[in-house]
Design brief:
- With 148 residues, this protein is of the alpha+beta class.
- The protein folds into two domains: 55 residues; 83 residues, no CATH class.
- It has six helices and three strands.
- A three-stranded mixed sheet has the order 2-1-3.
- Helix 1 runs antiparallel to helix 2.
Length: 148
């Protein structure tokens, strides 16, 4: 249970040690300054680590998008999502299998023959985007059980 708060506990302990070294000066001025500087540096590192951790917990939603000539160019929410830290091509393919209407393989040209999909995956993994939009035709959409 306490492992969830391990980093916070270590951070508080190091900060308390640094403050105590600064307050209770035992004649070691340089040591106290180093302790305070270390405390400050560790607090900044802890904040940066927490921000990265929180970013990995973001929810990434998956949408289908029909071409403009087949619809009003709107996004269709698939009701599928995953966390950013788990977001990979294999994870998305596994999630899409959950809403597949039949057995066997499904085909999405945007996934297989479009190099832009890799760019979209990279943007999501790097925290630039928070949603995956898969361009799909009306024929390909029939392979999935999605409410419109």
């Amino acid at each position: 249970m306490w492992t969830k708060y391990k980093n916070m506990i270590v951070f508080i302990m190091i900060t308390a040690i640094g403050i105590n070294l600064y307050i209770f000066d035992f004649g070691w001025k340089i040591y106290n300054m180093l302790g305070a500087a270390t405390t400050l540096a560790l607090s900044v590192l802890a904040l940066m680590t927490y921000i990265d951790y929180a970013k990995g917990e973001d929810v990434i939603k998956i949408y289908f998008k029909l071409p403009a000539e087949e619809s009003d160019n709107r996004k269709i929410y698939t009701k599928l999502y995953t966390q950013r830290k788990h977001f990979t091509r294999g994870e998305v393919l596994g999630l899409l299998r959950m809403i597949q209407t039949g057995q066997g393989q499904f085909t999405i040209e945007d996934f297989n023959k479009n190099p832009k999909i890799l760019k979209r995956f990279e943007e999501i993994q790097n925290g630039i985007s928070d949603e995956l939009i898969i361009e799909i035709t009306q024929t390909e959409l029939k392979q999935f059980n999605v409410l419109m």
